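Hey, I'm writing a tutorial for new members on how sequence and structure tokens pair up, and I'd like a real worked example in the thread rather than a made-up one. If someone can provide the structure for the chain below, I'll link this post from the tutorial.
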Amino acid sequence: MGTAAPGSRSTGWPEAVIAPSRFYRERALAAGVPPERVHLIPHGVEIPDGPPARPSGGYGPGRGLPADTWLTLGWCRGRKRSPG
């Protein structure tokens, strides 16, 4: 018989396993998945050390506003006051 194709039922393992953390990578390895098939790709968002530099022309012109315009983003959720 020939060699089984990667990810086929004959090998018993998928072609690749994506682990979102080291914990799950180690679990896959402990379960017997070959290391070359386990890929650590963390999910989440990288947070910069500080705010991005302000564009030299300001924030407004790219949005059809004057150069000295400040943009403020916010979020508000209404809450009912409890009686009493």
